[in-house]
Structure prediction request, 319 residues.
Amino acid sequence: MSTPSTPGTAAPSSANPVAPAPAGPPAPMGQGRFGSLGPVGLVLAGGISVQFGGALAVTLMPRAGALGVVSLRLLVAAIVLLLFCRPRLRGHSRADWGTVVAFGVAMAGMNGLFYQAVARIPLGPAVTLEVLGPLALSVLASRRAVNLVWAGLALGGVFLLGGGGFGDLNAAGVAFALGAGAMWATYIVFSARTGRRFPQADGLALAMAVGALLFLPLGIAESGAKLADPTTFGLGAAVALLSSVLPYTLELLALRRLPAPTFAILMSLEPAIAATAGFLVLHQALSPAEGVAILLVIAASMGAVRTQVRQAKAPVPEA
Prediction:
């Protein structure tokens, strides 16, 4: 699954591509180890980590089910982030807690719906459909006529992806992927609000804990004692590290040196990375039409980002 934002900061996705990179205190542990990759390398490494983590999650689903995999991912990621961030629980207003709870609900919904999608349709098309949520948010936020072009490209990609009517894709899987995209857009909105209310990655750690608490009963109901199996739990921990902990850290390091618009454009490559991971790990080959569809959605995402960047740089006429 895609990673649309940096921990505890306004989401630098296509819906908010011109937010300044956080200055903040010194980078967390690992900067010396990972910093030599360069900021672009860090973002690409994060994207590869996310999508190959998603591919690993698909292989785990026969053992633990989609809900069980989500539960393990959120639980392990929450434990790691809470131990690393040690967020302060006191001194926050009711509005602060309402925001972080909404962020956690959006995070849980996004993950749950996406994993239900990849249980039914290939990883590449699932991420392509999911990306439509942030793309729609970006187009609506910009309100420029040129964004109709990007919306048209995206719709053309969706039409190709569905073979003219989604006859080749499971209908429920398509619906789950589109629902995950809507939750991704909601995630972006509340990620930004949480970043303004909580320092560093504190808000993300707390929201992850909220999502884990919400999903754990569902995972237990579906998989029960299977979640406690050492192999299953170990694979779930690997999914959490690959899909949440590692990419969040890499993106946080990258944004200290990389302009947010560049970051957002790089994030638009997620469907292509997902298709590659699906092919290499899950042997999910794409038809030529599906490949063109993914490229159209990527082009639409990049175009929407560049349009917003130009709009932000345009001089404001004097009154």
Summary: Residues 39-85 form the longest helix (47 residues).
